[in-house]
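Newbie here. two chains, one complex. Structure please?
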Amino acid sequence: MMSKWASCHVKFVAAAVAVALLSGVPGLAAAGNADEPRKPDGSTPLQWAVFNGDLAEAQRLLKDGADPRARNNYGVDAMQLAADIADTALIQALLKAGADPNTANPDGETALHLVARSNNVEAAKLLLKAGARVDAREQFGEQTPLMWASARRQPQMMELLISRGADINARGAVRDYQRVATAESRAKSMDRGGFTPLMYAARENCRECVGVLLKHKVDVNLPDPSRVVPLSIAMLNGNWDIAKRLVEAGADVNQWDWFGRAPLHVAITSMGIAGSRSPLDSDQPNVATGRDLVKMLVERGADPNQQLYFGASFGASADRGMTPFLEACAAGDMEIVQLLLAHGANAKLATSDGRGAIILAASRAGGGRGRGGFGGPPGGAPAAAPAGGGGRGAAPAPAGGAAPARGAPPPTGAIPRNPAATLAGAAPRGGAIPAGGGARAARPPDPTVELVHVLAEAGADVNLMAKRHFLARSRGGSALHYVVRGGGNMQIIQALLDLGLDINAKDEDGLTALDYAMGRGYVPFLQMPTPPNKTLADNLRRLGATVELEKTPDWPPQGPPIATAVYDSVLWPVEPVGP
Amino acid sequence: MTFSRRSFLHGGVQALGAASLLGAVPALAGSKEQKGKVGARDIKVTDVAGLALLGGAGCNVVALGSPEGALLVDGGLAVNSAVLLKAVAGATRTSRVNTLINTHWHPEQTGSNEAVGKAGGALIAHEVTRLALTRAEQSPLFEGNYGPLPEKARPMKTTYNAGSLQFAGEQVDYRYLPAAHTNGDLYVHFPRRNVLVAGGPVVGGAWPLIDYMNGGFMHGFLRSYEMMGELVNPDTVVIGANGPTLTGKDIVRHKDIYWELFKQFFIFFNKGYGPLDVVAERPLKQYEAEMGDPARFIEYAYHSTQLATIPH
C-alpha cells in the first residue's frame, strides 16, 4: 500500500508535468521532434516552438520535416501562432517551409489580421508578398485587417495595407438583432456592427490613423447602420481633435442619424467629456475642446433646430423634439445659447411634451433637464440618463442632470429669511434679491436669471405648459412648477413672474406651483409623499399665489398600464411649440 | 433609386386589394407604378367632391384648379412627373401648378417638386420634409438613396405644426401628424368639400407602412389616426397615399385596430419577441382577407416601437 507521502509526491509530479505541458515550458513541452505525437490539444512541437518564439527550435523542427500547415484541435496552425506574436523571423521561416499565408482559424482570422494589430510592418509585408489577401474578412464581424489595424491604432500598418489595395471604406457585418430582450427580460440596445476603419479610428482616438485615412480620401460621411457618422462617433467619445479634423475635411455637419441626432446635438451633449481616457493618450491630450467643435459646426452651417426623433433612452422618450439649442438651454450654457441664437436658433421650439427653452433653462437649478420630478421640494426626479449615449466613453450626466437628493443642502438661491421684505417689487434683472434685515450678504445673481431673460427676448414662451410624462417621471406644468419642484430658487421664480408667468397656472394634474410647495404633488408607487415647504409656500403666497387645493388628492397607487404609459409618454407638439 | 422586389410585391398586393374592394384602381396599376415609369394612359383621374384624384404616378395625387393655376397635393414619382402634370392640366383646365403641398418627403410624393419649383410654383411641406430633401436619404421602403433634390425642388414654405391657405376661394388646411409615417407628415384638409388627404399614414384597402428609419413610429402612427379621427365625420372622404378612397368611419375603425395592436406589442415585448416573431403570431389575421398580408406593416411597426422605447 502506497504511503501517504508517496501518494502526495506522485500527485505533485503529475501536476507539475501537466502544468509544464500546458504552459509550454521549454525543454519539457516544446522540445521534441517532428514525428512526436501531438499533445492532448492536438498541438505539435513546431506549434509550441512558435508559440514560445523559439526560432532556433522551430527551424530545427522544420528541417526535421515538421508540417508547417498542421493544425491543432482548435484549427490553429503555426503561422497563426507566429502572426499572433508578429514575429517576422518565424513568419519568414514558416513561409519558406511552405506555410499558407491565407489559412484562417475557425473564426476566419488570417495571419494578416493578427499581424495587423501590431506595428510590425515588415511581418505584414512578408505575408502580403507571399500572397496574403489584403481584404480577408474574419467570420464573426466580417472585419478586415485594415479595421483591426485601425482599432489597434497602427497608422503605419494602415498605410501599408492601403498601399496594397485595402478598401478604406469597407464595412463590418451589420447585425439586425430581432430580439432585443435577454434572459434578464429587459430590452436593451444591441451592438449593430457595421463599422468602417474610420469609425474605429474615431472611436479609439487614433489621430494618426485618421490622418492616413484622410490622406487616402476616405469617405468621411459614411455612417454606421444607424446612420451615426464618424464625426459623431469621435465626439461621443470626446475625441475632439479627430472631430475637428473631420469637420475640416468636409464632414457633413447636418447628417442626422436614425434618432434625429445631428453632430451639433452630439457636440453640445458631449461637451463635458474631456477626452480619451486611454493611457496611450495621457501625454497628448486633445487640443480642441467640445466648445471649439460647437463653434466650428455652427460656423459651417449646422442646424441648431434639428429635432430628435426619439429620446436617447427609455425614460427619455420625452426628449423627442429636443434640439441642439434646447440642449444648450438645459445645460445653462449662456455662451452657446447666444452663439446658436446668432445662427438662427428658434427659441419657440419645444420637446414633444412641451418643455420649451425657459422650462429647460429654469429647471436646471433643481429639476434636471426639465424632468422636474413628482412632488414638492426638495424631492425631484431620479438622475436622468445622459442623452446621446452610444459612445465608449459615455457622457457624464449633463449639467443639472440629477435632482438634489433628499436631505441635501438647499439649492443656491433658497428662501431668504425675510421674504416679505425682499420679494416686493421686481428684482433687478439678473440681480440678487437682497437678504432680509441686512444680516446676510446678498447672494450672487443666479446666471439662470440672465439666461431666462435672454430666452424670453428671443421669443421663448414663458407660459408654456409641459405635459406630464409617466416614463420620464415628470408631472409637467409651467417653468414655475419645475422650479418649485426643484427646490424653489426665488431669484428664478421672481424672474419668471417678471416675465409674466401666471403664478396660479395649473398643470395637467390640476395643481399649482403652490400645491407643490405644500407637498400635494403626485406620489409615485412605493414612494413617500413629499413634506410641505411652508416657507416656500408663504413666499409664493406673498408673490400672489392664491389658488390651491384644500387637501392632497388621493393619488392612485400605481401609474397607468404600460401600453398607456408608453403611448402617453410620446407626446405631441402642441401649439405654440413650433412656428 | 430603385425599388426592391419586396416593395414591388407590396405595391402589387395593395393595388390588387384596392381593386378588389372598390375597383377604383386597375389591378396592375400598383405594380406597374412601383416599377417606375408609366404612360399617360396609366394615369387615372377620378372626381372626388370636385377635386381631381389622379392615380398611377406613384401615389394618389389630388388637384384643385383655379384661374391662378392648380393646387396639387403630392406629385408622384419624378419619372412620371411630365405625364402627371399633363394629366393635372387636363383635369383642372389650368396650364400651371400654383402650389404643391408635399404630405412627406418620399420619392412618390416629391417627384414633381423640381418641375413645379422651376416653373415658379410654391412648394409647401413640413420642415422635416425640407431638411430630408437637402440630403441623400435612405429608407426601408426603397433601395438606394433619394436626394438631395435641387434647390428649386425643395419646399420654400414650411411648418412645424399647421397652416392654412385660401385657394380658389376656399380654405385649405394642413397639419402635422407627428412621427406617423415619417417624421414630417402633413395631412391636407378641404373642409368645404369634407375631404381629407391623409398622406402616408393611410392606404386604401391595404396596410400602410411606417418608415422607422426616418422618424415614423407606431406611437405617432396611432396618434395620427386619433388626430384624423377628431377631424373627420363618418362621411368624410379620406384619400390615402395609395389605393381607393376611404371614409371618416374607416379612419375611426382603423384607429381601434391599431390601438389593439399597439397594446399587444407590449405583451410581445415582455416575451422578448422580435419583429419577425410578432409577424409569425399573426395578430391581425382577422383582417387579412380585407386588407391583405400585414407582415411588412407589423414588422416595421414593431421595429419602430423597439427603436422608440429601447435605450440606444
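Moderator note: The first strand of chain B starts at residue 44 and ends at 48. The mean pLDDT of chain B is 88. Thread marked as resolved.
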